[in-house]
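Run log // design_07
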């Protein structure tokens, strides 16, 4: 069983390797060598029954020197290196491997569970997106005929040494693959790639899951359209879910044989596990006929109230938030004192001064600057709050804080009043998984909004500004009364 290694475990193992004459930059090579030797040597039935001598192990190590370099220690010490190398998680020492998003861990674990329940042949594609989990897959699916698709020829060589009983393919080699897979997992964090080939590699009764960037999957380019057409032709799409990972929106597609309907909904990752919340289901035949890939269409059709609003042309999907507002992008901000706005400091009526976080930067840094005229979007503990930045205020967005800036005469007050109102909340609620929001700015920018002229905009803006000011004052007074009352109850009237 591959261990889950903490930072302390990695540190201790690194020190032990060093005592055995293996510096930190050589550890991964020794792990690859040990795993390769373990596989090759124990293919021999005699070695399986009687084991191998220290001298045989050392001699076989020398034969790998051209590929993996020479271990300079003696035979007795190499046995310790070999034993330790087989005990650790290889990917904890792999060069250039970035930590995985927690959401991706949950997705790959979900894929592994689906693979366990499927037939013998299993393929995992887009492996560079979840390299730290590769050893877990090898361990968990030891009884499967396991194959991986990797983008890099270098990683293909490395992984083949680490997991020699598995097959490794480059995307361009898929067209010649004759295996039909009972389960396929494809996790792409960058764009579209080998999706068309994967569809043709799925066994008749097989299952498949894809994770794709939403904007790439729904794009208007020829490649995106070609992939979508292949999906329609396959007739095997059984689920289309919207999910967020690392503040980016993704489409999660599930393929199953023999399903007569397609489910649409939101995903979340509560407690590190994938959860699916269906908003709408429709017959496969109706989905094929519609040929509609805009996820929002299905999300809104799952709400009778929104269906009535849109079908009655009260609002049009074509006039959305992104037409009148844009995301406030990151900029290089100067060194100096900055007021960092945390998500917890933003309420529906005010920015809590007692929760502002001033910081001093010794050098330039990247950040999202928020200024007068911007609408602050706060996402905290599954809740959304919207508040315009007042005159004279400037902030740097902290974690869970985003900015939306008007393109023309629409104001943040107008947008706040709409999003906090009953119709705006109906649209926002389509972004919920259970009781919590699954938030992505890209999806927020696609929400339909009502049209207004400059005169109406000015009237609504003034009314909203005055009302929020009164509400903020009332809430401050209520907090003061609670604080002072509790102080008196506890015998400290000045508390």
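design_07 sequence
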């Amino acid at each position: 069983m591959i261990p889950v290694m903490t930072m302390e475990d990695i540190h201790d193992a690194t020190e032990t390797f060093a005592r055995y004459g293996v510096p930190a930059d050589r550890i991964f090579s020794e792990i690859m060598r040990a795993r390769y030797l373990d596989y090759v040597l124990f293919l021999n039935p005699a070695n399986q029954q009687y084991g191998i001598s220290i001298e045989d192990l050392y001699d076989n190590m020398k034969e790998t020197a051209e590929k993996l370099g020479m271990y300079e220690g003696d035979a007795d010490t190499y046995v310790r290196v070999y034993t330790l190398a087989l005990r650790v998680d290889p990917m904890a020492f792999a060069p250039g491997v970035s930590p995985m998003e927690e959401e991706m861990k949950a997705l790959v674990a979900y894929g592994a569970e689906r693979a366990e329940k499927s037939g013998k042949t299993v393929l995992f594609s887009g492996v560079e997106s979840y390299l730290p989990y590769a050893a877990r897959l090898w361990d968990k699916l030891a009884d499967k005929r396991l194959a991986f698709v990797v983008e890099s020829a270098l990683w293909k060589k490395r992984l083949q040494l680490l997991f020699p009983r598995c097959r490794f393919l480059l995307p361009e080699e898929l067209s010649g693959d004759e295996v039909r897979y009972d389960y396929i997992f494809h996790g792409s964090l960058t764009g579209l790639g080998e999706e068309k080939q994967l569809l043709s590699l799925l066994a008749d009764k097989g299952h498949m899951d894809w994770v794709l960037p939403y904007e790439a999957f729904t794009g208007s380019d020829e490649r995106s359209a070609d992939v979508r057409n292949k999906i329609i032709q396959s007739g095997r799409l059984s689920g289309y879910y919207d999910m967020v990972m690392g503040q980016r929106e993704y489409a999660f597609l599930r393929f199953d044989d023999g399903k007569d309907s397609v489910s649409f909904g939101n995903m979340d990752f509560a407690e590190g596990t994938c959860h699916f919340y269906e908003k709408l289901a429709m017959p496969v035949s109706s989905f094929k006929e519609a040929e509609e890939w805009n996820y929002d269409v299905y999300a809104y059709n799952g709400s009778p109230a929104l269906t009535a609003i849109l079908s009655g042309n009260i609002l049009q999907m074509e006039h959305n938030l992104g037409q009148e507002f844009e995301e406030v992008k990151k900029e290089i901000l100067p060194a100096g004192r900055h007021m960092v706005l945390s998500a917890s400091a933003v309420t529906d009526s005010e920015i809590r001064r007692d929760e502002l976080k001033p910081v001093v930067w010794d050098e330039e840094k990247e950040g999202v600057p928020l200024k007068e005229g911007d609408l602050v979007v706060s996402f905290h503990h599954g809740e959304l709050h919207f508040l315009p930045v007042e005159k004279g205020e400037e902030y740097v967005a902290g974690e869970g804080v985003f900015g939306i800036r008007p393109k023309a005469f629409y104001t943040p007050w107008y947008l706040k009043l709409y999003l906090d109102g009953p119709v705006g909340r109906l649209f926002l609620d389509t972004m919920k998984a259970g009781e919590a929001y699954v938030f992505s700015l890209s999806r927020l920018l696609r929400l339909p909004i009502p049209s207004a002229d400059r005169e109406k905009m000015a009237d609504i803006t003034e009314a909203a500004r005055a009302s929020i000011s009164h509400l903020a004052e009332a809430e401050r007074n209520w907090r003061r009364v609670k604080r002072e009352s509790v102080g008196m109850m506890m015998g400290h009237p000045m508390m």
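The chain has 20 helices and 21 strands.
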